[in-house]
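Input for the complex:
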Amino acid sequence: MPNLYLVIPEILLAVSASLLLGFGVSKTKNRAPIVRLIAIAVLVLYSVLSFLLGSQDGEAFKGALIIDGYARYVKFFIGMAAAAGLLLAGDYLEREKLDKYEFSVLTLYAVLGMSIMVSANNLLALYIGVEMQALALYVMAAFNRDSLRASEAGLKYFVLGALSSGLLLYGISLIYGFTGTLNFEAVATSIQSNGLSAGVVAGMVFLLCGLGFKISAAPFHMWTPDVYEGSPTPVTGFFAGAPKFAAIALIARLVMGPFGDITDQWQQVIIVLAVMSMFIGAIGALRQTNIKRLMAYSSIANMGYALVPLAAGTVSGLRGMLIFMTIYLITVIGVFACILQMRIRDGMVERISDLSGISKTNRGMAIAMTAFMLSLMGIPPLLGFFGKLFAFYPAVQSGLTWLVVLALIASVIGAFYYLRVIKTMWFDESEHEFINPVRALSWTSAISALLLIGFVMIPFVARTGQDWISIAATSLF
Amino acid sequence: MLYQAIVFLPLLGALIAGLGGRKIGEKPSMAITTGLLMVSAILSWVAFSKVALGGHTEEIELFRFMDVGGFKANWALKIDTLTAVMLVVVNTVSALVHLYSWGYMDEDPHKPRFFAYLSLFTFAMLMLVTANNFIQMFFGWEGVGLASYLLIGFWYKKPSANAAAIKAFVTNRVGDVGLALGVMTIFLVFGSVNFDTVFSAVHDNQDRILSFLGMEFNAIELIAFLLFVGAMGKSAQFILHVWLPDAMEGPTPVSALIHAATMVTAGVFLVCRAYPIYEAAPVTSGFITVLGAFTAFFAATVGLVQNDIKRVIAYSTCSQLGYMFFAAGIGAYNAAMFHLFTHAFFKALLFLGAGSVIHALHHEQDMRKMGGIWKVVPVTYIVMIIGTLAITGVGIPGTGNIGFAGFASKDLIIESAYDAAHGGSAAGAFAFWAGIVAALMTSFYSWRLIFMTFHGKHRGEKKVLDHAHESPLTMLIPLGVLAFGALFAGMFFYKKFAYGVNDFWGHALPMQHAQIAADNLYAAAGTTMSDEAAGHHSYPAWVLWAPFIVSALGFVIAWFTYMYKNGVEKRVNAEGGPLYNFLLNKWYIDELYDATIVRATRWLGDVFWKVGDIGIIDRFGPNGVAAAAMSIGKRLSKIQSGYLYHYAFIMLIGVAAIIALVMRTVGG
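Predicted:
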């Protein structure tokens, strides 16, 4: 079994998740904190392993999974984002009396699912991966089962997720029916030799729509605001980051791999999803008063931006998407680290107006949050600007200037609500003071904010990081 | 290092007092700025003797300013006699004004700021006069404009001061646009902005034609005219003169430094500096002559009836600037510079003297409420008399230089104008007669000022007179120094400025014209300067005597009007006729501008603002889009109903729509 070596990271996740499941059961002691710490360690180890081990590419399980530079890069950030998510969750879960060890285990399973998604080289592996992470996320969404809203969120997510799985499966079966194979390369060869067939195109559309649900691309975004609002905040933060990256990575692999020869068709789907997401994300957020709902729309819009370079269908487009998503991931972690700090004596608050005047009471957090908002807007010294630059430039190169113009218009609209958050923090009268956050939160938000300051990161982005991303992007071609 | 020190010491002072004034306190910042300027002024005289008397011209490149393509401009110090004269004028007056301000601004709480502005102004002015290219000169030009704005509005709590500051700034802007266009045209025509390069190329470009908007212009004439528009703004020539009287809202030392001695003469300096261009532009030079002469006449008429002591002097400044310009216009650049030089002394003296009176009378500026104070402020009275004798040009006619400062320079100008007229120049003839008439009026209003202020009975409140006192020594010393200048500057420097004796001007100014004037004068005096000049005609005696006679006449009229049988009381209480009101209201120029330019601009602004900006751009631009986005957002949140089946429905509709879209291209 020489190629099991390639999937050591996944094996690590599966084994440790199962072991922790058993270890956590204890009548006398609350083992949740220790399980969480182990899980964080496992996730970091997973990230490092998947990044280091795979210096050699290959396929495992008879071609069901593929390990390449692309998968490695995405896995590294997924693992890190999940670890950060767990780190942030600790304090919240303890205070809300939700600190059950299953949370950490579910996170591990979700990451395992994502890992399989990212490495999928076969339609069934794709489905297994998607379902595995989705099932874990459904449970996490409803983790606060005593809360009506959380249960409702979980249920909504589950039902609509089931619908999307239906679309996914229908697409898979169509493709299998028309090409006679599940393997990505074989599908590509089949399309190459048999030419365009309506069945394959329909299957492709269903597949992309099913995955579009996972990245909450409009018009499959409807669950997002409700689930983001209803779920426990750390779960929302987790949702906004890692699963999105995994799903969009999978979409990229699909359109570059098996459907690489029907660019004209999938490009239309991607463009439709991108345009609708950008505008619905930007405009829908305008009237939101809840910061979590706001971030839901923000993530919808950002997924739209991430799809723009993908629509270009070029190596540089793929690079742009990876850069954009990486920066987005860092930002989102920071933002949720800040949102988790919005705690007054009576508990968590989530309204935007609760941020009023925190520049006077919690200056550090206000500065960090301002940096995140400015980065999301794409204001130059911050990395968000470079994210958008690298994302939109390939689209221009490929002649999709009009799409970029639309993206910029959406960005301008979006700037309004980001600015409103800044204005609330700096210019409005303070209502109440947040209690001092635990160190994990303030440090995470501070580190994310520092990472976003362009000139700290530019050497990284310019050299090493660019190399990694280039290797990752070219491995799909 | 001499020249660098002269130029940069004031800047150093300005920076220290301006940025650190609060830290180091009032007295130290005043002492530092004043001290540095004193040093700078002394060094200027050293430089003057070296350059103007010793003939050592120099050009020092400090560092590169701009270097874009063919466009090169350096920071440089061009030191020739013209610059040296300006250095002396600027730094001497500035140093004296700094000192004077110790006393005058004694009660002001913002002294460091005031001194910083003064020093900053001085630095900008020095940049202007030491420039070796048009860009650096433009920098200085704008710098003095800024400093002037800041100083006019120094008492920023006074609305009238703010209005005056803005008026000065805006009016100067009109002129500066002309100057900027002129500099651009120079670059267009000559491909360089360096003085030497440009001036040496003037001859080759004499017939160059520029077409603009379908009209054709002679390039040199156009450049000359545009530069002169800048000079008109800065030097308050007719049409653009309106800001100068209002600028008297600033503190009096500022009026003396900026609005009498230095900044307002920048236009004259510009014309003299660029004389090769004006030599080659006869039409524009004629225009300058006529406009300068008219300004001399116009401002003098307005000065006749003003009641504010500072405004009288302001109009007098305006009028004297007119003299300088028509001198430059007829080509007597040296006469213009000479008058600039002497004028700086006696006009600064008059202003500071007036300031001393104002200081004594607790900021009373209305001459109708003064009178009879000569015993209270005897020193001020004496120096004011000296200043008045200087400005009215008292001296012994025919000798050329035996007389007060104004005598030597003003008569030189009038004689030059006579020469031009004699040479067949109609503009010159106009200038000559305008100059004579203006001299009459100058004498009248200057003596009127003396009589109304110092003589007769006191017409203000008695309390004010009782508290009146002679100014402190810090104010009297500058007055003394300036009085010395007003007495002797003409006599000392007459031959040098007028005939360029000992190659005084070097290559800074042309001397052909001066040569003729000198010969004429010597011929008139019955001697000859040289044997070759013997063939020239001489000035008729009446030309030499005319200025003196009208000056005396002005004194007599003023005496009879204001001194004879309590004249002032009668005049103050008398109703003025239509002509009086016409003059009192400054020919209604301000009203005319208000009715035409100001209203029209405001109307246009209103149109652009209310119709263009609010009605069209905002309505369909930002506001419209924002409203649209908001209403769509509202609808979106309605769709976001929370019902599962709505969500599922939208998802399925989405899939169906996308399938339909993509299938369209497949055609299956």
